[in-house]
């Protein structure tokens, strides 16, 4: 589907979209999400009732589309927009494409797809990675405390690739080494690693240390941390959260770099647990 016209022919009405998502969710026919029985009564176009346990479900229940007031035609058009190869993707452009009255709705849809984007392109960074850490003063429990943040960016020659950011603090990453092991593929070359226990990463042969040139400035990782530091007050004013900011920031930086197919993105969206707006990604559903 190279053009919007091609998309409209295939997914121009709600039933076409619903039938398509039904095939993605149940490629071998209906399966009850509670008892896994394979026979049902079809109560309506969207709702099924299990003949064994009586559980009722819809095609979109238990997915990122659950409880959305946005038509499926718009959800699929948004997926087409995000997976098309033409230009930078923005909430403003998506709002215009869908004819939405609110930019916030367009942003929410992009946020929802951001939850599954990484699973489509591979989460871990690879190759040569520059890494920087920084302590940023944050208001926590009615007082200000320094919190350690870490940023890693893939390098493609002189250009930046994908980015990962994290909070080195309980409930997030326990230390810098944990961040590296969870976000960077083994065998990668690490540039800028200099915290106290970082030798553990290299002594085990997991990673290769790359010496920086004297003039090297770590401009990409530094830029990510600069952007975060300068956004703290705005995040507070919008009553948002730093984890959500980090997720959105990485999505904006990464989504144009990894090529994702339309069907791959929608299959991932079907297989993903519903997540309330503003929360961290939920875990993928067990098959």
Describe the protein:
The protein has 287 residues and is an alpha/beta fold. It folds into 2 domains: 4-121 and 260-270, no CATH class; 128-254, Nucleotidyltransferase, domain 5. Helices cover 39% and strands 18% of the residues. The chain has a 5-stranded mixed β-sheet, with helices on both faces. The protein is elongated, with a radius of gyration of 22 Å. The chain starts with a helix and ends in a 17-residue tail after the last helix.
Helices, strands, pairings?
Layout: H1 4-11, H2 14-25, E1 40-42, E2 47-50, E3 56-58, H3 72-83, H4 91-98, H5 103-121, E4 128-140, E5 143-156, E6 159-168, H6 176-183, E7 189-191, H7 199-203, E8 208-210, H8 219-237, H9 242-254, H10 262-270
Parallel strand pairs: 4-7, 7-8
Antiparallel strand pairs: 1-2, 2-3, 4-5, 5-6
Helix pairs in contact: 1-3, 4-5, 5-10
Brief rundown of the structure:
The chain is of the alpha/beta class and 287 residues long. The protein is 39% helix and 18% strand.
Which descriptor suits the 3D outline? elongated
The low-confidence runs, each spanning 5 or more residues with pLDDT under 50, are 277-287
Strand order of the largest sheet: 6-5-4-7-8
The portion of residues assigned to helices is 25-40%
Record field, number of beta strands: 8
Give the number of domains: 2
Rg over CA atoms: 22 Å
Question: Can you count the helices?
Answer: 10
Largest sheet: 5 strands, mixed
In round numbers, the mean pLDDT is: 88
The succession of helices and strands, N to C, reads: HHEEEHHHEEEHEHEHHH
Distance between the termini: 29 Å
Question: What is the SS-derived class?
Answer: alpha/beta
Classify the beta-strand content into a percent band.
15-25%
């Amino acid at each position: 589907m190279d053009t919007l016209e091609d998309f409209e022919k295939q997914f121009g009405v709600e039933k076409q979209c619903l039938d398509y998502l039904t095939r993605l969710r149940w490629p071998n026919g209906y399966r009850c999400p509670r008892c896994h029985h394979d026979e049902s009564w079809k109560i309506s176009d969207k709702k099924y009732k299990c003949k064994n346990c009586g559980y009722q479900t819809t095609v979109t229940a238990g997915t990122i589309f659950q409880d959305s007031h946005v038509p499926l035609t718009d959800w699929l058009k948004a997926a087409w927009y995000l997976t098309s190869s033409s230009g930078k993707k923005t909430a403003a452009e998506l709002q215009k494409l869908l004819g939405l009255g609110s930019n916030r709705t367009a942003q929410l849809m992009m946020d929802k797809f951001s939850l599954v984007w990484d699973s489509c392109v591979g989460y871990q960074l690879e190759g040569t990675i520059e890494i920087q850490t920084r302590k940023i003063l944050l208001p926590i429990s009615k007082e200000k405390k320094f919190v350690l943040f870490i940023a890693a960016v893939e390098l493609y020659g002189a250009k930046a690739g994908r980015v990962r950011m994290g909070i080195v603090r309980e409930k997030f990453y326990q230390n810098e080494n944990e961040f590296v092991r969870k976000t960077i593929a083994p065998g990668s070359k690490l540039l800028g690693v200099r915290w106290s226990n970082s030798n553990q990463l290299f002594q085990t042969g997991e990673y290769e240390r790359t010496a920086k040139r004297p003039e090297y400035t770590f401009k990409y990782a530094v830029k990510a941390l600069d952007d975060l530091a300068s956004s703290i007050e705005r995040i507070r004013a919008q009553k948002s959260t730093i984890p959500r900011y980090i997720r959105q920031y990485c999505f904006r930086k990464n989504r144009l770099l990894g090529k994702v197919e339309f069907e791959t993105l929608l299959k991932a969206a079907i297989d993903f647990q519903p997540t309330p707006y503003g929360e961290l990604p939920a875990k993928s559903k067990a098959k």
